[in-house]
Automatic annotation (TrEMBL):
Annotated organism of origin: Actinomadura meridiana
Gene3D superfamilies: Homing Intron 3 (I-ppo) Encoded Endonuclease, Chain A
Domain HNH nuclease: 4-35
A Pfam family that the UniProt record links to this protein: HNH_3
InterPro entries cross-referenced by the UniProt entry: His-Me_finger_sf (IPR044925), HNH_nuc (IPR003615), Homing_endonuclease_His-Me (IPR044930)
Protein name as catalogued: HNH nuclease domain-containing protein
């Protein structure tokens, strides 16, 4: 069945073949969901729920950088204090 793409949605190729037109391989989703389903570096990082040290990324525990990067406050604060002590 062929239908129009709903307003605000894009087509996600579930088979990851962008030239595919099989209806059962196509899923209309918001652009953010489409990007998160990809295997790009930014999508892989966005799906992470914990920092490399194992702390959970929560609103209270996450520092957001200007470029969109995330850092764990539990890990960053003691590291910055130690750096400031040695930099003096």
């Amino acid at each position: 069945m062929v239908a129009e793409i709903p307003e605000g949605l894009t087509i996600d190729h579930l088979c990851r073949t962008t030239l595919c037109v099989r209806p059962d391989h196509l899923d209309p989703v918001p652009n953010r969901i489409n990007n998160l389903r990809r295997n790009s570096l930014s999508a892989l990082n966005a799906r992470k729920t914990r920092c490399p040290q194992g702390h959970e990324y929560t609103l209270e525990n996450t520092y957001l950088g200007r470029n969109g990067s995330r850092e764990c406050r539990t890990y960053k604060i003691p590291r910055m204090r130690a750096y400031r002590l040695t930099a003096r």
